[in-house]
What does this fold into?
Amino acid sequence: MVGASELWQQMRYLMPEGLLLCAGLVILLFDLVVKKGRSLYPLAMLATAGAAALALLPLESSEPLFFGMIQSDAFARYFKVFSALAGFLVVLMSMDYKPLPARFVGEYLGILVLALAAIMLLAESTNLLMIFLSLEFLSLSSYILVGFLRNDKKSKEASLKYFLFGAMCTAVMLYGFALLYGASGSLDLPAIKAAFANRQNTPLTCLAMLFILAGFGFKVAMVPFHAWVPDAYEGAPTPITAFLSVGSKAGGFAVLLRVFFTVFPGLDYHPYWLAVVGVLAVFTMTVGNVIACSQDNLKRLLGYSSIAQAGYVLLGFVVMDGRFTQPAVMIYLLAYLFMNLGAFVVVIVIANTTGQEEIDDLAGLSERSPLLAWSMFIFLLSLAGVPPLGGWIGKYYIFATLVKGYLEGLSGGNLMLWFAVALAVNSVIAAYYYFRIVKAMFFEHARERMARPVVGGPLLTALYVSLILTFAVGLWPQPFLNWVSRMALPLL
Amino acid sequence: MGPTLDQMLVLSAALFGIGMIGTIVRRSTIAVFMSIELMLNAANLAILAFGRAHGVMEGGILVFVVMTVAAVEVGVGLAILVALFYFRDSTNLDEIDQLKG
It folds into this structure.
């Protein structure tokens, strides 16, 4: 049995999320006392920056912690850094987001900071119970944040749709957990893996895998569990849209990597996995890209674009090989974090200026604000995967993973080649709608009485950070790649 | 002797199916909430049945956690529904149609 003092010792591995949990509760408490919610912004920034710094400390344990609930390894640490960094940028973006009612800023920040802690817990859970709890923690905070604009009917509706869809996917996932528990007799991931060692695939494990994929697929916006994305993205406060598109998506990918890399390799299921995930990934990116072409609302367009991006990342999962898949997925997510948040910064500035978020509102942006127009241009190029930007590195590694899988003669290699072709074709479709935005910014003239956008300090900081890191991941990928491969899950 | 594992699993699968159909077919938000609860409890039943078959306790703890989380979930869901109800005196899903495209 583990003693109390030993548990206390183990607490030091949970410093980043501990800090965020405390900060979240302190912010909620302060909100009752301090009437001016804006004074809580520095606290939230300090908490997220502090959590990022704590997560960067090389404090790792190869032993399971807290009765096997948590494994605080390098992989978890990577997603802790990721989540804290995303949180810091989202807090910066929220500071100048006008529609947010000043009275409720405290609650908003408190819940946001707690949601970041939920992502961290999700990335380090190694027990189905803990996975369920942290996934629900993240989902419930997200539902509330999406519906945060009190007087906006769209925000409330988005929240309800997100909630209904999410609750249903969670229930399906829980049934998957029940089946997995039935097949293995344990909730602990390593124990499940041991129970599955050298066992044949049964219908029960296949069904469990599919059901669990529903829950995680909902988080990462995989087709056919993507229906909530456009509505939730359009209705939510824009910083929360940005948070959903990177933060909660990264959490979903983290738990997907951990569960599918620790539990299922024992089973002889590779051909099924390849077909199911590959086809779903191709559907995900095709549906996202094709529907995005006909969108006029920027947030909706970026929502469909984020579905497509999830499809690209999922393709990395087709090659279930630890050497390739993990670094490719992780570097893609890192590049995606900066380019997508950057694009949302521009959307916030536009919405602050014109009060809406249509593509038309970008008309003539290059004359009104060259800085914003060129930054948006860079972010869109990166999202489209044009070298030498971050998004290109990500896409290159996913592509290379598929080709490597083919060359090394992994089973189903021919299929992988087709998936790689689908990725290339989809990148071309995506270029079409990204360049629609570019066309509006550079080749259309501003309507009369369109104000010059004003970018405040916090938004400008977020813009520059995203811009610099989008370039950095693309131009000097080596340090990032080294870091990412150090942080991957240990190979089996 | 209680019911066998097979009987419990059939019941659980039936409840899950009813819940799933309910979430898709019913147009009243409250009824959809209830269907989702049904699905969660179907999973609970399956977990308990498997736990008894394997002779392990872990699952029982998960069931307690799920019951608690389900209560929290309904709390959040009803709060969102009430907030939406202020704008529109209906809980019918077909009339909630501001967002489209």
Notes: The mean pLDDT of chain A is 88. Residues 269-492 of chain A form one domain. Chain A has 20 helices and no strands.
